[in-house]
Amino acid sequence: MITRTLLRALCCPALLLVGLGSCVVEVEVPEEVEPTTIEVNETRTVTLRFARLDVEDFPLSIALADLEKMPEETLRNTWLLDLDARPLINNALNILVSTPDEELVNLGQAEFNMVKLLHLTSHSASTALAGTSMEPLIDLGETVDIKTSTILADLLQVEPNERLISPALMTDVVLNDLLATHPNTQWRPGPVDDDHPDGRYPVPVGYLPVTLYDVIDGFADLPIRFGPHAASGHPGFVSSTSGIQATTSEFGMTVKANINAMPYESVDLTLGSTHYLNSLGSQINVAFDFSDPDWMVVDGLVDELVIAEMTMKITESDEFWAGGTSRDPEPLGDSPVWSEVPAWEFEHIIMNVAVERAKSITAHETSYAPPVGSLDPDVPPDTFEAVRVSIDEGAWIEIEVNEDAINTAPPTKPLDELIPPAKYFWDLLIEIAQVRLHDGLGEGKADVELTLRDIPTGISTEALIDTMKQNVMTDASSLVDFAALLNDTSVGDPDFYYYRPRLENPEELQGDYLYFVTPMDIRNDDAGAKTREYSSYEQPGFYADAELTSKVSTRQLIDDDDSHEKVKIEEGDVLYVKDDEGRRFKIEVGPKPERNEIALDVTRLD
């Protein structure tokens, strides 16, 4: 048990920083007596004192060496920003597409095939139709003397050698289908409150949550956080990383706070004894002067985050998936890829790439004349259609063949075998993509692992710090665990504490109050984990009756605080409360010993 005299001695560094007084020279520490659990019907008297030490621009500073000694869980729970992964993925794909020919030989077969897929054109696509439901298009082109690549180029409104899939388009889908479906990209840590009882906050699609631990550790655990996730079955998208250096040896972080530096004297009902509660948690949202450009200073970050080496992974299904055969159900059709293939697998990703690509294709139809000299001399060539290819606004493709045109050229197959089935654009592309990805490989053997080097993340130091500041300005509670470690004055696990409003408040607000603790008041242990679950409190607050049916506490706004259940007390008041172990207690307010003191008789009821 810490004595008040000793506590004042521990607070001396804060006093010296603001030039207020001197330390207590003589400290008497009586023999420590462990408090015991209060028994049923036992009454104990506790005296609480309120002390205020308001300081401005109180520096809370820490260096890299100090951060590295902090509990890992605290570092992991100190969220800094959500990193936009779009520049990272887009840069990686552009590097891949730009791989020199002489370096392609160093790639594995699956990776080499992926590069070819990203270079897919209408010309190369036409050579991958064999073995797909669109194979008849090859024979049809030969029959009417029209290049298959020409038909595809006209259909997709591109030049014959124009790439069909851009890195930017692929990036959009990879972010949505591969990254955003990983559970560890969906949530970030944050303080527990009424809206977030589990301490989890949503992360925008396409972003990766970054914590203080990531910055200190050089993002070393990305393959763990964004690797295979057993519970969801997600295979992950990062296999390995190395050489991501975010900090230099000069790294340091300082925030200037305007706070009451003294802890609150409080009561642990289970023990019926006095304890101390760090006051930062209740002040964190108003502790910083955001109008001061130097309220947060971060030094020693590298100029720009660059990943020296990263291996990204995209897995594929173990079987070949055919495109759909029906327009229904609209708007995507009946391909089993939509219902049976997880969003993060290659086949589903390609389907969505095609859906996005189809948005740039306008509805149109193109007609093709039969070979010169094959028509009746009396029929003008520009009035006879051999083949008509159309795509509508929903990307549904239909190919019609004039039987008279087929009769004028030696058919390679019966007419019904020359007409490709109608289908959506994505049903066409998924089959072509699977054929191209499996060149030289069997089904289930084309998982892609791309090792890329010197990938810019797309964020500068200035932008990183700017984003960190903006996030804290929006929700300063993200720094509460970090700040509490820098000014750790908590002792014990209290249920409520004593508070007196600032003197500038109206007269009707002046007086003595009891504040029931909130999730932010729960202290961390030496490993950085919460010492107890706030959900153990079944009925937080103060009541007028032993059955706890008439609550008298409210979340009245006092000194910028509207999160605590609080009640104003006077001599003779009787309150009832339940602790985190489900025990009920009666609190009787006794005579005030001093202006800033209260005496409470605490009786355990059950």
In terms of topology, how is this protein built?
Layout: H1 4-10, H2 12-17, E1 43-49, E2 54-63, H3 64-69, H4 72-77, E3 79-84, H5 86-97, H6 101-104, H7 109-118, H8 122-126, H9 136-143, H10 148-156, H11 167-179, H12 183-186, E4 187-189, E5 200-202, E6 207-211, H13 212-217, H14 222-225, E7 238-242, E8 247-260, E9 264-268, E10 273-277, H15 280-283, E11 296-301, E12 304-314, H16 336-340, H17 346-358, E13 364-368, E14 387-391, E15 396-401, H18 403-407, H19 415-418, E16 423-424, H20 425-437, E17 448-460, H21 461-474, H22 480-486, E18 496-499, E19 512-516, E20 566-569, E21 574-578, E22 584-589, E23 597-604
Question: What do these coordinates show?
Answer:
By secondary structure, this protein is an alpha+beta fold. It has a domain at about 120-160 and about 315-445. Helix 5 (about 85-95) packs across helix 11 and helix 11 (about 165-180) packs across helix 17 (about 345-360). The relative contact order is 0.17. Residues about 1-30 have low confidence and may be disordered.
